[in-house]
């Protein structure tokens, strides 16, 4: 059922928000640091695991796919409510928390690209 896909997304969102708040407190920023991103990564892993175990039926997958496609609008909406001025004035750690993941992604892209070329498609 499609509602199961939405339920899985809701679970991932709640876990991501909790983890984002925890990371924010851990680094001394009074904000959620990457909660939606963590949620989407968790959704990808759960979706992949469910497919490998053949627990995912077509309608559940449609629910997950729909919300996966809504990722960018959700991130834009979430970003609109963030207080960037407070985050930047909180100090260097907040700026570093934004720059480091971008640099890690830039370094990881060529590596992931090589991995995908070596993997045969089914």
Automatic annotation (TrEMBL):
It holds the Pfam family MadL. The keyword Membrane applies. Signal peptide: none annotated. Keywords: Membrane, Transmembrane, Transmembrane helix. The chain crosses the membrane at residues 26-46, 66-84, 90-112. It comes from the Bacteria. This is Malonate transporter subunit MadL. It comes from Arcicella gelida.
